[in-house]
From TrEMBL:
Pfam families: EAL (PF00563). This is C-di-GMP-specific phosphodiesterase. GO terms for molecular function: cyclic-guanylate-specific phosphodiesterase activity. It comes from the Bacteria. SMART domains: EAL. It comes from Loigolactobacillus bifermentans DSM 20003. Coiled coil: none annotated. InterPro entries: Cyclic-di-GMP_PDE-like, EAL_dom, EAL_sf.
């Protein structure tokens, strides 16, 4: 069984909840712990988007955005784009696809040209593309620069660098990506807030969106069938 877990996303401008980022979790047997799937390729696009559609039916009115993650292998599978286009037409909530820093489980590497082509398709379908975890894994400067015309948001993840980089280096990286987002008129999200001291980053860099355990931990979401 799979379900989405949700983590709240807050706007710094309005100081209000604007939406959620959704994470897939699986449960091998009823009653066992929910866990991160080892291989996302085991799930078909139809299965994931059906789950997303059934989950959206349970959300309260007033949310402006919902995002969920696709690795590179999933992102270039345009069945996701086709199904999401249909779903977007059925909901007022803006759907964001977050391209993660992970390649995926496939044997063939995804090319930058394939990623750009896919991002263009999502844009033409009226879907928003966010580059997740910029500066981490495969989501480095060259990829971000090349895909800029087809993306609307950059997200920097504090949890990826906390404890690995000194504070000054983290600030330098946040400043780099924040300024790049401003120049290109992209939304800038900062995630991974965990402590009171992290709030100083809001005043220093003025992210548009914030999220993290400090603001709310991921929690399991019901689907419409649960209420039947």
């Amino acid at each position: 069984m799979i379900r989405f877990f949700a983590q709240p996303k807050y706007s710094i401008t309005t100081v209000k909840l604007v939406g959620y980022e959704l994470f897939i979790r699986e449960q091998a047997t009823v009653g066992e712990d929910w866990r991160l799937p080892a291989d996302f390729s085991q799930f078909k696009p139809q299965q994931i988007i059906h789950l997303l559609a059934e989950t959206l039916k349970t959300f309260p009115q007033g949310l402006s955005c919902i995002s969920f993650n696709l690795d590179q292998e999933q992102f270039v599978d345009l069945n996701y784009c086709r199904l999401l286009k249909t779903l977007q037409a059925q909901t007022p909530i803006r759907l964001y696809v977050e391209l993660t820093e992970r390649q995926g489980k496939g044997t063939a590497s995804t090319t930058l040209q394939e990623l750009v082509h896919a991002a263009q398709a999502y844009q033409q379908a009226g879907l928003a593309v966010c580059l997740d975890d910029v500066g981490t894994g495969t989501n480095q400067y060259e990829l971000v620069r090349t895909m800029a015309a087809y993306t609307v948001e950059y997200k920097y993840a504090l949890q990826n660098v906390r404890g690995r980089l000194p504070g000054d280096e983290i600030h330098t990286q946040i400043k780099f990506w924040r300024e790049m987002a401003l120049r290109q008129q992209k939304t800038f999200a900062l995630e991974g807030f965990e402590y009171d001291t992290d709030n100083s980053l809001i005043a220093a860099f003025h992210p548009d969106i914030v999220q993290g355990y400090y603001f709310g931990q991921p929690h399991i979401l019901p689907i419409a069938a649960d209420f039947n």
